[in-house]
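Reply to dn_fold:

You asked what the input looked like. This is it:
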Amino acid sequence: MKKVKFEDLKHEEQVLVKMAEEARKNAFSPWFKYKVGAAVLSDDGKFYFGCNVESPTCEATHAEVNAIDAMVADGGRKILIICCAAKNGGIPCAPCRQKIWNFSGNDPLVKIISVSLSGEIRIFTIGELYPYPFGPKDLGIDPEKY
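and this is what came back:
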């Protein structure tokens, strides 16, 4: 993990931060009141975003999942970078780490940018946050073929 300043990010990373912060504003979180926004840059250079959406049955769709699902719905299959924006920094939860790994192309260096409301930016890799993954490769599946 490393802490960085916004101006030290590459252009596409700055775009992801802004997209995740904007998506966070649209989060539907009346029960937990924990809004999260996420943005993905896929390997084909396209950007996608999502926010968390809660329901009264305590189910929620996480922002990272919504952003990744938007990528998949558009035909994308590989994440280059994902950014999460939340009150305390938006570090992906365990199920979201799995989803990120599923579409990482088995690359432990896929970047995860975490942004807090105070503007603190930290960069992780999926390999740091999820060091012993089980995913499509373990089942003989290549997501890029589907």
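The beta strands are 2-4, 36-42, 47-51, 53-54, 60-61, 79-86, 111-116, 121-125.
Hope that clears it up.
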